[in-house]
């Protein structure tokens, strides 16, 4: 995890440097910022024999990049680079789950880390020196870089089982969000909002888990700043 925090910090410093340099054309067409989103992560099974025991508190952090599509800046293509820490607790009946634990019912406390690239159409009001509202709709592409599970089976706990090889290598889904922006100074703009993401892809490889489709959804509080 340390390398992800270091990467995000490095990119954040570079972003601030580019923004502060105030290159006219770039500044008008691209807005760069940093965000930190506390979230609730939910793994949602679609097949009997697997049930969600609880959701999990998580975190998403990284860079925001808005590419303005008009001079006024009220239409933009919103993207970025995020690290997402999520997961959930799932209960598996006997005969389902990973091979080492399939013989008996088991509970999996999954802790998943993704690198995510969002891509959305963003609409916002553009009143100067005033509160502005924004909304966005689009998709995202997420790639797992870490997957661990604490497995409880027959009252025995198996800590930090590596499940990354048994996860699908990409997750794609829908994202929607809305919120407000407010000026913090001459060059800084604060942002707050709510976002929802609905994964379309099975998180766990069905051939390995025999668990049908398990998608990953999340609700997040968007907290960020544009430079």
From TrEMBL:
Q: Which residues form the Outer membrane protein beta-barrel domain?
A: 19-189
Say yes or no: keyword Signal present.
Answer: yes
* UniProt cross-references to Pfam families, sorted A to Z: OMP_b-brl_2 (PF13568)
Q: Which UniProt keywords apply?
A: Signal
Q: Which residues form a coiled coil?
A: none
Keyword Transmembrane part of the UniProt annotation: no
Q: Where is the signal peptide?
A: 1-21
The name of this protein is: PorT family protein
Its lineage opens with: Bacteria, Pseudomonadati, Bacteroidota, Chitinophagia, Chitinophagales
């Amino acid at each position: 995890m340390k390398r992800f925090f270091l990467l995000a910090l490095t990119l954040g410093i570079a972003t601030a440097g580019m923004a502060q340099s105030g290159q006219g054309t770039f500044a008008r067409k691209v807005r760069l910022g940093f965000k930190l989103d506390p979230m609730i992560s939910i793994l949602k099974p679609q097949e009997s024999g697997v049930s969600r025991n609880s959701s999990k508190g998580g975190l998403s952090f990284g860079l925001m990049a808005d590419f303005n599509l008009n001079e006024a800046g009220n239409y933009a293509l919103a993207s970025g680079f995020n690290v997402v820490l999520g997961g959930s607790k799932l209960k598996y009946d006997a005969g389902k789950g990973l091979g080492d634990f399939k013989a008996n019912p088991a509970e999996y406390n999954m802790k998943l880390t993704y690198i995510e690239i969002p891509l959305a159409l963003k609409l916002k009001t553009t009143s100067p020196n005033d509160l502005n509202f924004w909304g966005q709709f689009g998709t995202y592409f997420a790639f797992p870089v870490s997957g661990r599970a604490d497995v409880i089976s027959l009252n025995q706990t198996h800590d930090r089982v590596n499940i990354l090889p048994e996860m699908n290598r990409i997750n794609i889904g829908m994202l929607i969000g809305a919120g407000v922006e407010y000026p913090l100074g001459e060059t800084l703009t604060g942002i707050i909002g709510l976002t929802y993401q609905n994964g379309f892809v099975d998180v766990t490889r069905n051939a390995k888990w025999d668990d049908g489709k398990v998608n990953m959804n999340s609700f997040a509080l968007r907290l960020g700043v544009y430079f």
